[in-house]
Write a structure and sequence with these properties.
The strands form 19 sheets. Strands 37, 40, 41, 43, 44, 46 and 49 form a 7-stranded mixed beta sheet that branches. Strands 13, 14, 16, 17 and 18 form a 5-stranded antiparallel beta sheet that branches. It is built from 3 helices and 64 strands. Strand 13 (about 155-160) and strand 14 form a beta hairpin. The protein is mostly beta strands and about 750 residues long.
Length: about 750
């Protein structure tokens, strides 16, 4: 009965909802369009996962007689007192639900809510159809993607991926809203590049803007495929024709690619098969042979023809060292060679010449190639070699076969060359100094070095020490078995001095003065640098650009404006010849130092002599006036009278004039320091009297307090135990007698008992 009572009202409600829907359609036909219905749905369309919650508001801004929701789930009864009602289902499980909101306003109208209920697949799987195991290259296979229990299918897209590349996709037009199973297939024809590649399929529900973003999708596990394919022999590594020089061996390689890995074998035209990737051939190897690459899919054969050739090399005759600048002939002999040959000459690792023979004769021949050389000193110890290479074209062995001669090392003898950078044509020596010059020469054999000083005395050494007494003209001679070279040198004696340009004597602080440096008889001028030093500090330097090579005199000036800190400082100038690759360190001469005396106006020490000086009445104070100047200044005090006081110190009292001054004077000028004397009263006796009275008062109070404490401590304490009052006078009696002081003094132990 309960089931029947529940079923009939529900059935009746659905019937009424359908009837209302037909009435709504009729109203559309008769001209009442939904756009005129004063209802607003928010949202206007919903997408909800099967079993998920949903809530949609229906609102109006007009007066009405009632509004409500009609739906197979989540019915909202008509109400006239609201302007917004919500259709809400917490667990939507009806696939084709069609709710609508209605309102009674003038006439009844409604607004339909589109609802899409979706469900992601339970699983997505990929498999091969009617095939297991490895695939064979070039054959066709079918892959299958199974998508189980998905809805709605019209929103489903199944995509196929090869690795990360999308290769195909399928969509569906079926309008069924309940879950279905779908199967999608993909035809493939794999090749060797697909071995190990992974395929996968992906089911995606594209539910529009109202649906979840990004669209829900489920991806299958990847399906890795194995592709077997027939071997392919690498023809680049194994040419069809291989040349071998008689007496030499050549290793040829047969590389093949296949899956499974192929087995490599060589057929030498006999019953003996060689199983190896490599084969060593000699001049006795059969002319025709082949390489076979084989696996379970098939086999491939590469035919090879062996060409045997002879070659030897030697270098043309020459004995002993070569002389620089002479011409010599080198010879390369290539024996018993057939077909095209290229002969190359190398100097070290550098190709210097090559000759190509293009004779069409097919029988072996001998070829001779020559190279003319004219060696210089840089060729000493260099190695020459020749190389014969057979050019057999693209189909020949790569790289082409070649034979190289043994290297020929040549020795080149050459005349000495003196290093002119290290030994200039003019050498400057400063008077009183020495300079060591060096004569370096390069030659083969090693040259002997000697110096000719214009006398019968020859000095055999690379170095020579020159002074201001060395002859002006000398020469260095470098000699070996090939020849000799001479370098002429001119010696230039030089002087240097420093002086002041007028005036002479002490300098005045702040004035400008000119110092002058005279460098005499120096060459070459363009390498000269004159440096000025103040103490050890470089303050200026001058270089010269004159290209004259003969000795000249140069004068360089320096403008200075000394202050008091420069008194006693030393200036000097230095002439230095920077000859580049010449003597190191560069030769230089330094002038005698010039010490300067600087006179300066006095400066009074204002720290020791303040501008205001306090003095207490009845006391004295000593003022000190110290001044710094050159010459030493004279100190005097001006007290406002005609009689100055000549002394660094001045004793002042309360009777000293209020304004006084200190004057420091020397030959440069004078400086005055004004001082104001400020008279102050001495309150020290008054303060001392107040302190004494205070101490006396505190002492009286202390004595008074102490006396009270002392009397109290002397009285003691007494006990009334066993005391009896006297009948006569009421005093406490002790032992039946009157006692003026009938009390008993207690001991310390009785007090604390």
């Amino acid at each position: 009965m309960k089931k029947q009572s529940f079923f009939l009202p529900t059935l009746f409600r659905i019937f009424c909802m359908r009837l209302f829907g037909f009435g709504f359609l009729f109203s559309l036909v008769t001209g009442t369009h939904a756009a005129e219905c004063p209802l607003q749905l928010n949202p206007q369309r919903v997408v909800v996962e099967y079993g998920g919650p949903v809530a949609v508001n229906c609102s109006t801004s007009v007066q009405h007689l009632g509004m409500g929701w009609e739906a197979s789930e989540g019915l909202v009864s008509i109400s006239s007192s609201v302007s917004l009602i919500t259709w809400r289902v917490s667990d939507l499980r009806e696939w084709d639900i069609e709710p609508f909101c209605y309102i009674n306003h003038d006439k009844q109208c409604s607004s339909y809510l589109p609802v899409t209920v979706y469900k992601t697949p339970d699983s997505v799987s990929i498999s091969t159809v009617n095939h297991t195991g490895p695939m064979i290259e070039g054959n066709q296979y079918e892959l299958q993607c199974d998508v189980l229990n998905v809805a709605p299918v019209q929103n489903l897209t199944v995509k196929w991926y090869k690795g990360e590349t999308l290769v195909d996709q399928t969509t569906f037009t079926d309008t069924i809203k309940t879950p279905v199973n779908e199967t999608v297939t993909l035809m493939i024809r794999p090749d060797r590049s697909d071995d190990g590649v992974q395929y996968r399929c992906e089911a995606e529900l594209n539910l529009g803007e109202e649906g979840p973003q990004p669209p829900p999708k489920v991806t299958s596990d990847p399906l890795s495929i194995t592709v077997h394919y027939k071997p392919i022999i690498n023809e680049t590594k194994l040419p069809s024709t291989v040349s071998v020089f008689r007496g030499y061996t050549v290793v040829i390689v047969c590389k093949a690619e296949g899956n499974p890995n192929p087995t490599i074998s060589w057929n030498l035209g006999t019953n003996n098969t060689v199983y190896s990737e490599t084969l060593t051939i000699t001049d006795s190897t059969p002319e025709d042979l082949s390489c076979i690459a084989n696996n379970s899919v098939g086999n491939t054969t590469r035919h090879v023809k062996v060409s045997v050739q002879d070659i030897s090399t030697r270098v043309g005759d020459h004995n002993g060292p070569m002389i620089e600048g002479n011409q010599y002939e080198l010879q390369c002999d290539v024996l018993n060679v057939a077909k095209s040959v290229v002969v190359r000459w190398y100097k070290g690792e550098t190709l210097v010449d090559q000759t190509t023979f293009t004779d069409t004769i097919k029988t072996p021949v001998n070829e001779t190639v020559t190279l003319m050389i004219r060696p210089d000193r840089s060729d000493n110890g260099v190695q020459y070699r020749c190389e014969a290479e057979l050019d057999l074209g693209e189909e020949g062995p790569q790289p082409p076969p070649k034979v190289t001669s043994k290297p020929l090392s040549i020795t080149v003898h050459y005349k000495p060359i003196i290093n002119e950078t290290k030994l200039p044509s003019t050498v400057s020596v400063f008077r009183g100094y020495t300079v060591v010059i060096v004569c370096k020469a390069e030659g083969n054999p090693n040259p002997t070095i000697s110096w000719n000083l214009g006398t019968n005395n020859t000095v055999y050494s690379e170095t020579l020490t020159i002074t201001d007494s060395t002859p002006e003209d000398l020469s260095c001679i470098a000699n070996n078995s090939v020849g000799n070279t001479t370098r002429h040198v001119k010696v230039s004696v030089q002087d240097i001095s420093i002086s002041t340009v007028d005036p002479i004597g002490p300098m005045i602080e702040g004035n400008q003065y000119e110092l002058q440096c005279d460098v005499l008889n120096v060459a070459p001028d363009q390498y000269l640098t004159v440096k000025w030093y103040k103490g050890e500090t470089l303050v200026d330097q001058t270089t010269f650009t004159d290209t004259i090579k003969t000795p000249v005199n140069e004068t360089v000036t320096l403008m200075i404006r000394p202050d008091r800190s420069d008194d006693g400082v030393q200036y000097r100038c230095e002439a230095e010849l920077n000859l580049g690759e010449g003597p190191q360190p560069p030769p230089k001469v330094i002038s005698d130092p010039l010490s300067i005396t600087v006179f300066s106006k006095p400066i009074i020490n204002e720290t020791k002599l303040p501008s205001k000086v306090p003095v207490f009445r009845g006391y004295e104070m000593v003022l000190v006036c110290e001044a710094e100047g050159n010459p030493e200044p004279t100190i005097s005090w001006n007290l406002g009278t005609n009689k100055p006081v000549y002394n660094e110190t001045l004793t002042i009292t309360d009777s000293t004039p209020e304004n006084l001054s200190c004057i420091a004077n020397n030959s440069v000028g004078n400086t005055t320091r004004h001082v104001k004397v400020v008279l102050k009263e001495d309150y020290l006796p008054l303060i001392a009297g107040l302190v004494a009275i205070t101490v006396a008062f505190i002492s009286v109070i202390f004595i008074f307090i102490y006396s009270i404490y002392y009397k109290t401590a002397k009285m003691g304490r007494y006990s009334l135990k066993d005391a009896k009052p006297s009948a006569q006078n009421g005093n406490i009696a002790q032992n039946g007698k009157d006692n003026t002081f009938p009390m008993k003094k207690l001991s310390q132990s009785n007090i604390f008992a």
